[in-house]
Amino acid sequence: MRRASTLASLPRLSRSLSTAHGGAASTLAPATYGLLQVALYGTTSTGSQARRRWLDSFSGGSGRKLAIGVAGTLASVAVATSLAPEVYAKEPPPAALVPKEVVLYQYEACPFCNKVKAFLDYHDIPYKVVEVNPLSKKEIKWSEYKKVPILMVDGEQLVDSSAIIDQLNSKIVPERAAASSPDDDEEKKWRQWVDNHLVHMLSPNIYRNTLEALESFDYITSNGNFSYTEKISVKYAGAAAMYFVSKKLKKKYNITDERASLYEAAETWVDALNGRDFLGGSKPNLADLAVFGVLRPIRYLRSGKDMVEHTRIGEWYSRMEQAVGEPARIKA
Ligand SMILES: N[C@@H](CCC(=O)N[C@@H](CS)C(=O)NCC(=O)O)C(=O)O
Q1: How many CB atoms lie within 10 A of CB 223?
Q2: Could you say which of 41, 110, 207, 219 is catalytic?
Q3: Which residue of 51, 136, 225, 310 pairs with 131 in a disulfide if CB–CB is 3.0 to 4.6 A?
Q4: Over residues 23-34, mean pLDDT
Q5: In angstroms, rounded to a whole number, what is the distance separating the alpha carbons of residues 129 and 108?
Q6: Is 112 an annotated catalytic residue?
Q7: What DSSP designation does 256 have?
Q8: pLDDT of residue 246
Q9: For 281, which DSSP code?
Q10: What is the pTM of this model?
Q11: Is 217 a catalytic residue?
Q12: Using one digit for the tens of pLDDT, what is the confidence trace for 274-302?
């Protein structure tokens, strides 16, 4: 009986899967450098002679020697500083602004759900997860919205990943959300790039051949909400279905070589960083969190490993892993 209903739902599976993944079928620190310049009398500043006089007044004319000693000490501090790894940390909101109850209805491997989780994790907002069965969707029967993610925040239903993040952001950082700055345009542009471009790179890559499609479905079924029989049938039937769907998606999004397109997207993102640790500067902004969230489900699949091996995105990704830290998910 159970088996029959599972198999009967397979056409629905391919429909669900085709809409998944995109709706179409993720030196020296300046201060140290400044100090060194001061210790070395400065090279550009007109205050250099005054500084030497100031040092001489303490050292009976041996200001130069003293300065060299200070410079040496500072240089060793600078070397130690440059060797010490940067520490990137989460950014929790003030306790009063943290919602009391947050529940995420999701598919574990869904890039849109992972965008929302990246935001919640980075801001250390505790959340419960309800893993939705993509075949029956019985866990979201109560909602008129038929996709995931759905986020319940203190009883209020939020839908659509980017809208969810905007609304949460204005709840937990109201002052930043209200004040607009030129950086916002850049953040907005790249968030749109994630939704309109980057997500479309995923399916053609993770289902590009039978081996990778099976690897992806192994990950999806191991982490998703499926019964035992569903797991087996979904793994093989899903992998086969998505292999064909991904070919259609390639056509739809004009992708000829899916890996080359993924690498190009990764390089485009690194170029956008323009030497900064994050698009947001010294801390991730919403675009960093969106790119990270969308790439997180594929990072340790063959395609994600290839991407890190063949592009410059790895260092930024590692910084993001460090900043986002441990999941804020409440274990049931
Ligand atoms: N624009 C939506 C897209 C959400 C979406 O397409 N989610 C997929 C899962 S990755 C889904 O629920 N598809 C419908 C289905 O599974 O039936 C968002 O950003 O949240």
Answers
A1: 13
A2: 110
A3: 225
A4: 35
A5: 9
A6: yes
A7: S
A8: 94
A9: B
A10: 0.78
A11: no
A12: 999 999 999 999 999 999 999 999 999 99
Could you please report the per-residue DSSP string of 125-189?
--BEEEEPPTTT-GGGTT-S--SS-EEEETTEEEESHHHHHHHHHHHHSHHHHHS--HHHHHHHH
Mean pLDDT of 267-278: 98
Residues with CB under 6 A from ligand 1: 16, 19-21, 23, 107, 110, 112, 134, 147-149, 160-162
DSSP secondary structure string for all residues of 208-234? SSHHHHHHHHHHHHHHS---HHHHHHI
Ligand 1 site-directed mutation target among 148, 158, 197, 220, most atoms within 8 Å of CB:
148
Of the candidates 303, 203, 312, 194, the residue with the CA atom closest to the CA atom of residue 259 = 303
Structure tokens, 68: 């060299």
Question: Ligand 1 center to residue 122 CA distance, Å?
Answer: 22
149 Cα nearest atom in ligand 1: 20
Range in 17-21, 141-145, 191-195, 309-313 the model is least confident about:
17-21
Q: Residue 50: what residue type?
A: A
Structural domains of the chain ordered from first start: 2-25+93-324 (1.20.1050.10), 30-83 (no CATH)
Cβ atoms of 298 and 107 within 8 Å: the answer is: no
* Catalytic residue, candidates 41, 88, 105, 113: 113
181 by Cβ neighbours in 10 Å (0-12 / 13-18 / 19+) ranks as: exposed
Residue 73 has pLDDT above 90, yes or no: no
Task: Compute the residue count for the chain.
Answer: 332
Q: Which amino acid is at 142?
A: W
